[in-house]
Amino acid sequence: MISTFPDVFRSSLGKLKLLPFGFVVVAGVFSSYWTTAIAATSPQRVQIEGEIIDTWCYVTEIMGDAQGTAHHLCAVWCAIGGIPVSILGDDGQVYMVLRVENEDTNVANPTIVKIQTHKVIVDGDLYERDGVKYLFVDQVADDKGVVNLNHEDYGIIPFGE
Amino acid sequence: MRIFSKLLVTSVFSLSVALGTAHAANEWGIEHEEAKELDGKVVDLACELSGNCPANCGDGKRQLGLLLEDGTLYPVVKGGTNFAGGTDDLIGQCGKSVHVDGLLIKDPLMTIYFVQRIKSKETGEWSKANQWGKSWKAANPGKKLGRWFREDPIVAKIVDESGKLGIPGLVYVEE
């Protein structure tokens, strides 16, 4: 069958009629993507149990296994120096703490500096974005104090004193 | 293990001292690190995520991050002073675009950025990201910046109260 010019024209017109439907589909896809993007930044209620740690030393491992009494002093230095504090969860994940209860600051915050290395259970909001788990703690449900006594194995890291 | 740890710390310390004379981001040999210059807007992390936004990114009391043009958010956790963060280096640029140089560490546990240099928009000159140390030195005249963590009065008070191990009365004596 040979298509004439009018046939092709009519066929094209038919396709044009589908354009609005196409726009609706594309808009739907973008809308779905946008909704997903927003959902990715929405918080999730969580309860985390773990040890308060120094984010930099633990993630980079420049001080070896940066936790427990062996690394407590260094963790205090880093917290006073303004490096973010995290919780090393019992699940092995690291949660960067951006708020503790009613405190509105998170750089060298006195409350969190004083509980370095403590084993805690906290309730809060978890935001996950671009490879980071951010935690906004609204309640420290339990503070067991320092329980990870690893200094007998490792000494005091760094410098040995 | 202890000797290895001390050697490692000494090496890291030497590297960080060398940072003061370097002309590009210094690599630290950290797994997953990449020397990386970034363009981004300085943001208050808590504000960016939760909408709780005090004036001027919290005036240096809030952790800061870099928001890239494509929407990627990186927390800036480390600055050029030993054992100190990068907030003091970036707070003056709250809400503004900056060009920085440093180490981007995409560890599976957490992605973090170590800012080492900041480029001035006005002059195009690089400056070292060591504002925390400058501020500490100004607040503690006569004390040695290289030993700030030993001589800082707030650290000293905490150690007095809870000891070097975090438990009052518990002392470690190296055998």
Q: What is the radius of gyration of chain B computed over CA atoms, rounded to a whole number of angstroms?
A: 18 Å
Number of extended strands of chain B = 6
Gyration radius of chain A, to the nearest Å?
27 Å
Class of secondary structure makeup of chain A: alpha+beta
Low-confidence stretches of chain B at least 5 residues in length (pLDDT < 50)? Answer: 17-22
**Overall average pLDDT of chain A:** 82
What is the SS-derived class of chain B?
A: alpha+beta
Which strand order do you get reading across the main beta sheet of chain B?
A: 1-2-3-5-4
Order of helices and strands of chain B: HEHEEHEEEHHH
| SSE order of chain A | HHEHHEEHEEH
Approximate strand percentage of chain B:
25-35%
* Total of DSSP H or I helical runs spanning 4+ residues of chain A: 6
Major β-sheet annotation of chain B: 5 strands, mixed, barrel
* Chain-averaged pLDDT of chain B: 89
**Major sheet of chain A, described briefly?**
5 strands, mixed, barrel
Q: Please count the helical segments of chain B.
A: 6
Query: Which bin fits the share of residues in helices of chain B?
Result: 25-40%
Number of domains of chain B: 2
N-to-C terminal Cα separation of chain A, in Å? 92 Å
Shape of chain A: globular
General description of the model:
The complex is a heterodimer of chains A (161) and B (175). With 161 residues, chain A is an alpha+beta fold. Chain A folds into two domains: 5-40; 44-154, no CATH class. Helix content of chain A is 36%, strand content 31%. Chain A has helices spanning 5-17, 19-40, 55-60, 72-80, 110-113, 151-154, and strands at 44-54, 85-89, 94-100, 118-129, 132-146. In chain A, strand 2 (85-89) and strand 3 form a beta hairpin. Chain B has 175 residues and is of the alpha+beta class. Chain B has two domains: 2-128, no CATH class; 140-175, no CATH class. Chain B is globular. The longest helix of chain B is centred in the first third of the chain and has 17 residues, at 2-18. Chain B is built from six helices and six strands; from the N terminus they run H-E-H-E-E-H-E-E-E-H-H-H. Chains A and B meet through helix 3, helix 4, strand 3, strand 4 and strand 5 of A and helix 1, helix 2, strand 3, strand 5 and helix 6 of B.
